[in-house]
Design goal:
about 425 residues, alpha/beta, six-stranded parallel β-sheet, 13 strands, about 50% helix
Length: about 425
């Protein structure tokens, strides 16, 4: 034990309890030290008698606990509590006094004393100190928890406030309790204009009951799925929004309100409408094209049938009566007319695809390719093109259409060929 008049703290051992004792009677101070030793404490203690000594020792080394006699010649022990508060120190102060009435003791506890122990009952002092230190640890934990919670709340508020989407809090009767910058931008109302107002101000007349119905479902504990709707801005214009609603619960788990996240989908709705218009326009164009293909192929069949018939008649009647080239040319003309008939029939069938669907079956792509090469023989010969292909598969598809694909590819290759042969 050290007396403040003789010197400051002795260097304490690690984990020693540091005690600052406000006491004018050194014998009583020794009795307190004996009680601490009997209580199992390893401690260092400094005894002070005046406020100046008390403040000097506080600055020199923070104690873990302050013990103070209630009545001293120059000041009172409770005044030590005022010093601790003035310096912003959370250090337990226990009154150790010879006589302290119940009323006075209660008043001291109310003012902030941690506990009180009478000098004729010092056996209770160690337990009072342990309890005071435990309470301090709990307070510090609670303060850290509260600080972390405040920081988390501040971060959450900053996140909500800076979110691009509108985030709105509301009570179960529809009163607005939270309104972020996203809501200000989306709906046009400032936070001061919106808070405390009813959400009805955002509803168009045809949806006047929508919010009340949703809040009633929230109050019953029902889930409200994401939905799209229309709201009214401050300027009176409608805005398409995508809405997600979640319940707000109090500490006991009771539903006390709802939070709404609303996103402006006006541009998306406009794009969807434009796309639908384009699709309708494309459908009309396709219908017109199908009709044209049907009419054109139908009208071409009769004159082509006559060409094919008379060509075949000439070939049959004059075969062998003209020179060899004439027979060959008549054969080419007859085959070309027949292929043209086949193509027109395919075009007619294609025009009906959108209405009745294409006839599908097993198609040998090798045979289809040979037929195309035969049809394009004059063009291939004239251009000097060489067409090669590997083994082609058998597909379940529309035969005329796959042949048309091959024909288009080869015709385009011939038409758009370069001057030099490919490397």
């Amino acid at each position: 034990m050290t007396n403040a008049r003789d010197g400051s703290w002795l260097t304490p051992e690690p984990n020693k309890l540091r005690v600052l004792h406000v006491e004018d009677n050194l014998l009583d101070a020794e009795l307190v030290a004996q009680a601490l030793r009997k209580g199992g404490f390893s401690f260092s203690v400094v005894v002070v008698q005046t406020e100046a000594e008390f403040e000097r020792e506080l600055q020199a080394r923070r104690p873990d606990v302050v013990l103070a006699d209630y009545n001293l010649p120059q000041w009172k022990g409770m005044e030590a509590l005022d010093v601790l508060r003035r310096d912003g120190l959370d250090i337990p102060l226990i009154l150790v006094s010879g006589a302290l009435g119940d009323v006075t003791a209660v008043e001291c506890i109310k003012r902030g004393a941690t506990d009180y122990v009478l000098k004729d009952g010092l056996a209770r002092l160690p337990e009072a100190i342990r309890r005071a230190l435990q309470e301090k640890v709990l307070r510090e934990r609670q303060e850290r928890s509260d600080a972390a919670l405040r920081e988390s709340q501040a971060q959450l508020e900053a996140l909500v406030h800076s979110a691009l989407d509108a985030i709105v809090g509301k009570t179960l009767n529809g009163t607005i309790t939270a309104w972020n910058r996203g809501a200000e931008k989306l709906f046009g109302y400032s936070s001061s204009e919106a808070l405390g107002e009813s959400l009805q101000m955002l509803l168009p007349e045809e949806r006047a009951n929508e919010e009340s119905d949703i809040l009633a479902r929230i109050a019953r504990g029902e889930n409200v799925e994401h939905f799209e709707t229309v709201r009214v801005r401050k300027d009176g214009k409608n805005v398409d929004v995508s809405v997600t609603i979640s319940p707000i619960r109090d500490s006991g788990g009771a539903i006390v309100g709802a939070s709404k996240i609303a996103r402006d989908i006006t541009e998306r709705k406009r794009a969807e409408k434009k796309l639908a218009e384009k699709m309708a326009e494309l459908a009309r164009s396709n219908a017109d094209l199908e009709q044209f293909a049907y009419v054109a192929s139908h009208d071409l069949q009769e004159p082509l049938r006559m060409v094919a018939a008379y060509t075949q008649l000439l070939a049959e009647r004059y075969r062998g009566k003209l020179d060899e080239n004439a027979d060959k040319f008549l054969g080419y003309a007859s085959e070309g007319a027949l292929r043209m008939q086949s193509l027109i029939q395919d075009l007619l069938a294609f025009s009906r695809v959108g209405r009745v669907g294409a006839a599908r079956g097993r198609v040998d792509c090798n045979a289809a390719m040979e037929e195309v090469l035969l049809t394009l023989g004059p063009a291939i010969h004239e251009s000097g093109a060489v067409v090669t292909h590997g083994a082609l598969p058998v597909l379940w598809t529309d035969g005329p259409q796959i042949a048309q694909v091959f024909q288009n590819l080869i015709e385009n290759a011939i038409k758009f060929r370069g001057k030099e042969p490919p490397a």
